[in-house]
Design brief:
Layout: E1 2-6, H1 13-22, E2 26-31, H2 34-43, E3 46-49, H3 55-64, E4 67-70, H4 80-98, E5 104-110, H5 137-142, E6 150-156, E7 159-161, H6 168-179, E8 182-185, E9 191-196, H7 197-209, E10 217-219, E11 222-226, H8 227-238, E12 242-245, H9 247-254, H10 258-262, H11 270-276, H12 285-289, H13 293-296
Parallel strand pairs: 1-2, 1-4, 2-3, 4-5, 5-6, 6-10, 7-9, 8-12
Antiparallel strand pairs: 9-11
Length: 299
C-alpha cells in the first residue's frame, strides 16, 4: 500500500513509518522541518513538507494514497483549543478526499479521558469534547464512516514509552530535576496504562491492514501502573527522595501538569488483541525506566 502518514518524524509517527516500511508498504510522510525531513528520509520514506494547516497539501496526499494514518498533533497544552481546531480542519480535509473510496483512515486518540476511575476498553465510546479540552479526533473522523471511508482510531496510552521518550513520564522527570524530589499525588494509587512506542506502531499497521474495520483499537500493554511506582522509578533513576504531595503542594510541584498527574485511567485492549492478533513484545514501562539511558535522554 501507499500510505500517507502525518506527523511522520514524531515520537509515534516515526515508529509507525518504520513499521510500515519494514512490512513492504510505501510511505509518504508529512514533516514540518528540515530535521524532520532528514529523519524520515533516512528511514526510507518519501518526504512531504507541510503542516496540518496546509489543507491543500493534505488533500493532494490523501488522493494519491491507498490509506492514511494520522499521528500529528501540536502538543502545546497552553494552546489546546487552537491545536484541536487545527486537527479538526486537517481530519476533515483528508476525509473529504477519501469519501466513497472505502480506503482506510486511521486517526490517533487516547484513553485518558474515556472514563477515569475504572478500567476502559474499546467498547467505551469517546466522550464529548470539553471546553477545557476540545480535542475530538474520533468524532470528526467517524463522521466520514457513513460517507464511504473506513475509519478507525488507535487510542494511545497516556505514556507511550521507550528510550528517548518525550511524553508524560519525562514531564515528571523534569519536575523531579527541578525540585529535587520525585513526587506522587496523595497515596499515588492512580493508574496510568502504558504502551511501548514500537508495540503501538505495530498496532497502527494492523489496524490499517485490517482496513480499519471494527475499531477503535487500544494501544494498551499494561492496564495500569500506579503513579507511586513511576515516582519510585524516577527516584531510583535520579537518586532523589520520593515524596507524597497533596493539595496546594501537589499543584505547586506539578504546575499545569497536576490534572494529568492525578488522573486514574486504567485501560485494556481485548478487541485489539483478539481481532488483530496484536501481541505486545517490547519492554514494560518500569523495565525501560530501570535503564540510566531513560533519564539521560531528558537531561
Amino acid at each position: 500500500m501507499r500510505v500517507f502518514v502525518t506527523g511522520a518524524s514524531g515520537w509515534v509517527g516515526s515508529a509507525v513509518v518504520k513499521e510500515l516500511l519494514s512490512s513492504g508498504h510505501h510511505v509518504l510522510g508529512l514533516v514540518r522541518s528540515e530535521a524532520g525531513a532528514k529523519k524520515v528520509a533516512e528511514l526510507g520514506a518519501e518526504v512531504l513538507h507541510g503542516t496540518l494547516d496546509d489543507l491543500a497539501t493534505l488533500q493532494q496526499a490523501a488522493v494519491q494514497a491507498d490509506g492514511v494514518i494520522h499521528t500529528a498533533f501540536h502538543h502545546d497544552f497552553s494552546k489546546i483549543v487552537e491545536s484541536s481546531e487545527q486537527e479538526r480542519r486537517a481530519i476533515e480535509a483528508i476525509g473529504s478526499k477519501l469519501e466513497g473510496s472505502h480506503r482506510p483512515f486511521v486517526v490517533t486518540s487516547g484513553v485518558a479521558l474515556l472514563a477515569p476511575g475504572r478500567v476502559t476498553s474499546e467498547d467505551d465510546a469517546s466522550p464529548p469534547p470539553l471546553a477545557s479540552f476540545p480535542r475530538a479526533p474520533e468524532t470528526t473522523a467517524f463522521a466520514f464512516a457513513a460517507r464511504g471511508v473506513r475509519v478507525a482510531a488507535v487510542r494511545l496510552a497516556p505514556t507511550v514509552h521507550g528510550i528517548g521518550d518525550n511524553g508524560f513520564v519525562p514531564r515528571l522527570v523534569h519536575f523531579a530535576r527541578q525540585t529535587g524530589i520525585s513526587a506522587y499525588v496523595d497515596e499515588g494509587r492512580n493508574r496510568w496504562p502504558t504502551v511501548h512506542r514500537l508495540d503501538a506502531a505495530h498496532l497502527y499497521r494492523l489496524a490499517l491492514e485490517n482496513e480499519a474495520a471494527h475499531g477503535p483499537f487500544h494501544a494498551i500493554t499494561e492496564e495500569g501502573v500506579t503513579l507511586k511506582q513511576i515516582a519510585e522509578a524516577i527516584g531510583r533513576g535520579l537518586d532523589i527522595p520520593v515524596v507524597s504531595l497533596s493539595g496546594e503542594k501537589a499543584a505547586e510541584h506539578f504546575s499545569w501538569f497536576t490534572r494529568f498527574a492525578g488522573i486514574d485511567c486504567p485501560s485494556s485492549s481485548p478487541r485489539s488483541r483478539s481481532l488483530l492478533g496484536w501481541k505486545p513484545e517490547q519492554p514494560t514501562l518500569l523495565e525501560d525506566m530501570a535503564h540510566a539511558a531513560y533519564f539521560e535522554a531528558h537531561q
